[in-house]
Amino acid sequence: MRNIQKRVWRHDERRRLDWPERRFPSDCIRIIAVPDQPTLTTKRLTLRPFQLDDAWDVERLAGMREIADTTLNIPHPYPVGAANAWIESHPPAWADGSNATFAIVETKTGKLVGAISLMIKREHRRAELGYWIARDRWNNGYATEASQRLLDFGFEFLGMHRIEARHFVRNPASGQVMQKLGMQHEGVERDWAIKWDRFETLAVYSILEPEWRARQGQLK
Q1: What's the whole-model pTM score?
Q2: Helix, strand or coil, per DSSP, at residue 92
Q3: For the chain, which domains are there?
């Protein structure tokens, strides 16, 4: 999936991926104000705006090669400091209506387990869904659970008419998530992008607001 997180990497900046997670007292958390961006909840997850102190965990989790391998723009190794800059980009993107990015947090443990976003083209009432889930939380259904909540938010709150998603064809698990969301497979974009010096073919899925609304009625 797509994520925009880039910076020139210096070899001597590499961090060990086995460094422990940082935990801060609640009164020490550095927060970036994201006016009006809500916090969303599901049965097991909380989707909230990122905080600056999430940067350590973003670099540690997204820095795993398995995460970068299945996403278009996450680099590997992950540059030290890039997560901070990425998080700082969220408030203006939310404010101008071009992007809605949420941290995926395990409600029970309070741990960051991924990221999810809608890249919005408001003039066309269209958005593209993107996400990543921490490697040690794969196969728990978190991608589907978080994505369904963000689809609901996109159609109900943001007034989108179409939400689409793409995945590398060599990563069929992501396609299974899109199918569970009720998205329709529209086709493939052959050799659409280059990742690590090789061409990648992407599968394209989408769901329209009337289709989402009909599916909501069926699920009730």
Answers
A1: 0.83
A2: helix
A3: 11-219 (3.40.630.30)
